[in-house]
Design a protein that fits this description.
The chain is α/β, with parallel strands linked by helices and about 220 residues long. The chain has 2 domains: about 15-165 and about 210-220, Vaccinia Virus protein VP39 (Rossmann fold, 3-Layer(aba) Sandwich), CATH 3.40.50.150; about 165-210, no CATH class. About 45% of the residues lie in helices and about 25% in strands. The protein is built from 9 helices and 7 strands; from the N terminus they run αααβαβαββαβαβααβ. The chain has helices spanning about 1-10, 10-15, 20-25, 45-55, 65-80, 115-125, 140-145, 165-185, 195-205, and strands at about 35-40, 60-65, 85-90, 100-110, 125-140, 155-160, 215-220. Strands 3-2-1-4-5-7-6 form a 7-stranded mixed β-sheet. β4, α6 (about 115-125) and β5 (about 125-140) form a beta-alpha-beta unit. The longest helix is centred in the last third of the chain and has 20 residues, at about 165-185. The protein binds S-adenosylmethionine. S-adenosylmethionine (SAM) binds next to α4 and β2.
Length: about 220
């Protein structure tokens, strides 16, 4: 039953509004003909699938959450993308790919969770020279960490700021409205773990909408 309710909530549907930043970032990459793209921490694959649709290349997703990868594998089959999208249960710290395997490394909302030195060392290793790394993260984190990227061989070539307070205006506020509608329909809504998580995040973002503003960086591996 809770699976059905979560399908009806369709949080991913709300989240898809931010694919405009994935598209904008992809279109800002100067070389993108048949790229080999690695999406690190791909989760259920919203950016992964979009990248496959945007590019004529091959997209590889890695994550350590097998449940999320199972959901993504289902979507890959449903969308007929099995020939160009592959996913693996692997950590960013030890991707097991050969040196220089990828033209582009993508990450949205992942790297702030990780040990930056270990993650960027591995990203540099598997990215080819002059390849691109795209990171989409909260401003607060990104602005503090940007100065460390050159140490790992990355040069900033472009930044794409997200609209102000967009997480609140375009995702959490509409999500809250939908949760309120579903509350009237299902007595047990607030017992569902995923709903509890959404409600907690809504309360957090509501208190400080600007604190969740994001930026996408496009970096190039120069050494
Ligand atoms: C906030 S989610 C973002 C998912 C996806 N990039 C998106 O935009 O929808 C963070 C993801 O990072 C993954 N993750 C955390 N640590 C990881 C690691 N060491 N290696 C690979 N993935 C990791 C989590 O399992 C989760 O799926």
């Amino acid at each position: 039953m809770s699976e059905e309710i979560l399908r009806e909530l369709d949080a991913e549907g709300f989240r898809s509004v931010f694919l405009k930043y994935t598209r904008k970032a992809f279109e800002s990459i100067p070389e993108r003909n048949k790229p080999r793209i690695l999406d690190i921490g791909c989760g259920t694959g919203m950016p992964t699938l979009e990248l496959a649709k945007l590019s004529n290349g091959e997209v590889t997703g890695i994550d350590i959450d097998q449940g999320a990868l199972d959901k993504l594998n289902l979507k890959i089959k449903q969308e007929g993308l099995s020939d160009r999208v592959k996913v693996y249960n692997r950590s960013v710290y030890d991707t097991k790919f050969e040196d220089g395997s990828f033209d582009i490394i993508w990450e949205e909302g992942v790297i702030h969770l990780l040990d930056l030195t270990r993650a960027l060392t591995e990203c540099n290793r598997v990215l080819k020279l002059n390849g691109f790394m795209v990171t989409g993260e909260a401003n607060n984190w990104a602005n503090r960490k940007l100065k460390h990227f050159p140490k790992f061989g990355f040069k900033l070539i472009k930044q794409i700021p997200w609209e102000r307070e967009c997480w609140w205006m375009q995702y959490y506020s509409p999500l809250e409205e939908k949760i309120n509608i579903l509350r009237k329909k299902y007595d047990n809504l607030d017992d569902i773990e995923e709903i509890k998580r959404h409600v907690m995040e809504i309360e957090m973002v509501k208190k400080d909408p600007a604190g969740f503003d994001c930026v996408t960086y496009i970096l190039q591996k120069i050494k």
